Amino acid sequence: MPLVNWEIEQAVMYGRIGINPFNQERVQPNSYDVCLGNDFQVMLPGTGEDSVVSPLDRGSIAAAFQHVSAPYIIIEPGQLILGTTIEHISLPNDIVAFLTGKSSLGRLGLDIHKTAGWVDAGFVGELTLELHNCGQRSILLKAGMPIGQLVFFDGACASYGYCEKADAKYANQKGATISRYSENDMAVVGVHPDPDEE
Fold it and tell me: Please, what sign has the CA dihedral across residues 151, 169, 193, 190?
């Protein structure tokens, strides 16, 4: 069951959940409103050979994005921009969270995550947002505006938290963080990092 407002407030008050900065006015009946930061990674259009991004190649991923720090950003229809929350989140090993969008922004065509809404127990850091405009008009977003809702779930205590894993690629992340998929151990799954080599 998701934590309700007074449970969220109590968990923050006693340091069980870390939300920094914390604003009591952003506590909702079953969630906490997180706000948009001013750090962005804008996915660039590609041409020719550069039109393909390989998740196995760190350089390919880095070349696909341009870092921007700005008080606002405009997302064009079909565009993907990585953003970040202002809030630094810290979860214990017995609470997980789910990030979802604000209904009012969804009605304008804004998605705030594509597949990465889940926040593991033991995660510490800012949350990267996968901002996508699936509408027909450009959307103006300003840093500081409420951008999503974080829903918390109490459960059994995990034997280790996210940040305790040796391969925790996004532990203590700050700002809009591009994909680190290339850091996965591909040998484990039998994939060679260079698809051109035999």
Answer: negative
At 8-57, the pLDDT tens digits run 999 999 999 999 999 999 999 999 999 999 999 999 987 777 789 999 99
Catalytic residue among 9, 130, 164, 183: 130
Decide: pTM greater than 0.85: yes
Where exactly are the structural domains of the chain? 5-46+55-180
Q: What is the pLDDT of residues 105-152, one digit of tens each?
A: 999 999 998 877 899 999 999 999 999 999 999 999 999 999 999 999
The phi, psi pair for 138, rounded to 5°, reads -65, 150
- Residue owning tokens 């901002």: 131
Q: In whole angstroms, how far apart are CA 107 and each of 79, 114, 139?
A: 17, 16, 11
Q: Is the dihedral of CA 80, 84, 85, 89 positive or negative?
A: positive
What tokens does 98 get?
Answer: 């789910």
Length of the chain: 198
CATH topology for 5-46+55-180 is Deoxyuridine 5'-Triphosphate Nucleotidohydrolase; Chain A (2.70.40)
Helix residue ranges, H only, the chain: 5-13, 58-63, 103-106, 186-189
Residue 183 annotated in active site: no
